[in-house]
## 1
Amino acid sequence: MRSPDRSTQFSQFVEFVVDPPHVQDLVTALIARVERFTCLCPGFISAQVHVSEAGDRVLMQLLWPSKRDSELAIERAQAVEPDLFHLARQHHASALLFSTFNAVAQVCAVPVAEGGEQ
């Protein structure tokens, strides 16, 4: 399978504001949702789940080759899975924030040759 052009990738970010005692259960639920459903959607590239240092926010990032692929995944999810609002309520989130971004550039680490020279 051809790797998508990094300059055209599309990211969805979903941030949950949640009391620290509920963070781990929410993280577990999000990972299960991605593994059970989202990763099977056409075009899915990757997902990451982050927890803030303060332990009161959970951020999920989904990466797609295009906005259209992400929209199709959302349509598919609405027919099959409990939506993210349901997960937010179930895990006592006080806020749920959605944002989307188009990738415009990517910088990668350059491997350093043995002996410290490039």
Note: The longest helix spans residues 20-36.
## 2
Amino acid sequence: MFVLKNVGLRGWEDIYLLHSYHCDIRSSWEPTAEALKNRIPGHRHVWTAVTVPHLAFPSMLIELEVEVKRQQ
């Protein structure tokens, strides 16, 4: 979240849309959801999760893509 804070945003709190790409959604869904809940409790953004056959690098198991909006 360094990038978000570097441009004047708060971080996870300013995310309104999240896309997650999972190589194995059955094993990664729960840990991902739990990590997000712990990181930003009470925050409810739109979240789309998709299973993919592979990501950019063989060692990658999950990729997160976010859209943010500066909250007034």
Note: Residues 25-39 form the longest helix (15 residues).
## 3
Amino acid sequence: MNVSWGYEASLLLRPIMTTTQVPGAIPVEASWVSAYPGGLCEVRRRWLGERRRGEFTPMMGSLCKIKVRRKAAVTHEPTASQVPESTADVSPGEQASSYPRSQACVLQVPLNDWVLLRMGEGQCDVVESCLEGMSIGEVCEFTVSAQNAKTSKATSSDAKENQMEAQDLTQQPECFTLQLHSLTPGLESWQMTPREKWAWVLSHKQWGSQRFGKGDVWGAAECYCRAVRLAITLHSQTQRTPEDDMSEEAEDKNNEEEDEYTETSHDCSIPSEDEYKMIKAELHSNLALCQFKLGQLGKSKDSSIKATELNPKSTKAWYRRGQASMELGELEESRRAFEKTLELQPDSASARAGLKQVNSKLKDLDTKLGKRLSKMFN
């Protein structure tokens, strides 16, 4: 079975933004869906004051100095012309602020403090999305409301007072303001070199593993999606191996010319085609696991199929394909996936258990079908 390019193309798309005309001085409002550790939320953003024209706006790698405040705590709503300039501009040598992610918080940054946020790292997807298109000195207002009913009410004993408390978003949307004080230049993905893209891919993969290990499944899935989006743009930009070059050289080239391939032309920070496929397969396989745990069975199956296409020897991908197919009721495909897992790893207890379970389900179906046929002819 082959997954079309449409599946990967869908991962390239950011959440669809819709614009609507609203009354008053602010003519345009945008909305989209973002992820946070407790699930999905709808974000609505509108600009406060007149738009500014800056030389650049936040892009991947930009270090942004920002302040987020709860709307109820703002007595006089700031506008772009009233942003305080008492704090120093951010410099390229500074490091982004790091905060532990919590399912009890929708925003993964403190409130009422100046914070350094690195675009593309996914510390807070809600805030990163709001920063897109902002210029230095601008202020926007954004409202966050639950996209799904499942929200976490867990609390943290050592949470700071200025960090957003656990909220039940199903009851009432929360409104905030976001100020962009200063930023460093960044790059769009199409402006990056293959080396820069690959570094981001590996970083997102590492962050995804760390978040998954801490129970932040939504955050892990977001990291893997970001990595896959960038990896797709690296297609046909992988590094050539010496064997590739030698196979395409003309037969009449002398040995001296053939031996000109040196270590300087082999950049280890750019993946070979085999390494590219292997890492990409791992990303799809890890994403499949996240999607399975989040109940996104169809997406989990698609991701695992893509992983097995990229790396047919991936036992984890075949096993996850079997799991998703079984939950979807596609028992024959599930059985084939578990059998393939055992072919690659005969001592896999989990694959044996999965195969036993799917065979039991198939036997039950055969029994029920036999009874129905018996009633039809008797």
Note: The mean pLDDT is 80.
